[in-house]
Write a structure and sequence with these properties.
single chain, 194 residues, mainly alpha, Arc Repressor Mutant, subunit A, Tetracycline Repressor, domain 2, 2 domains
């Protein structure tokens, strides 16, 4: 087994946990399987993360922080809804294409039972995403009066559309290009303004 304090132990555990959680689900994998895959002992995992749940929390906070920041910047509304939604779609699609395993894990955890450990870990991130989109649509309602009062439905619908496209990108079933971003956003825009 590898040394407890070797600098790459933490990253090895995160990498193997991501792979195993993505393949079998959070509840389908135990600590023993993770440490065996990483070539370390249980005390090493507990030293770095405290528990399997701590490992999941670290994995998500370490790996999703950049996405969250990029989405926050993309969501800055400048009185151009199409531009804002295009930026949000682009960030989401690029993330799914470049980090398919992490995207799949986040999607799985978003659909975990709300009272489960995994569901509770992902819930704040998912809620932040929906609230951010609600704010975009609330701000856009000032420019587009026919949107007033529909911000939550639009936010949930747009997030669902993004998730569907991103899942196909992560699976390799779609190729990413700017035309895909354009089509997705304009399809959504056509639906809300028709």
């Amino acid at each position: 087994m590898k040394d407890l304090d070797a600098p790459d132990r933490r990253s090895d555990l995160l990498r193997h946990a991501l792979s195993l959680f993505t393949e079998f689900g959070y509840d389908g994998i135990g600590v023993q399987q993770i440490v065996e895959a990483a070539g370390v002992t249980k005390p090493t995992l507990y030293h770095h993360f405290g528990s399997k749940l701590g490992l999941l929390e670290a994995l998500l906070s370490d790996r999703l922080a950049g996405l969250d920041e990029a989405l926050a910047q993309a969501a800055e509304y400048r009185h151009d809804l199409t531009l804002t939604l295009t930026r949000l779609a682009r960030v989401t699609f690029v993330f799914a294409r470049e980090q398919p395993a992490l995207h799949r894990l986040a999607r799985m955890l978003s659909h975990a039972p709300p009272r489960s450990e995994a569901g509770a870990v992902m819930a704040p991130t998912r809620a932040r995403q929906v609230v951010r989109l609600e704010q975009v649509f609330l701000q856009a309602a000032a420019d587009h009066g026919n949107m007033t009062g529909r911000h939550r439905v639009y936010a949930i619908s747009f997030q669902g559309m993004l998730d569907s496209y991103a899942e196909l990108l992560a699976e390799g079933a779609l190729d990413f290009d700017e035309h895909l971003v354009y089509r997705a956003v304009h399809h959504f825009m056509h639906g809300i303004f028709s």
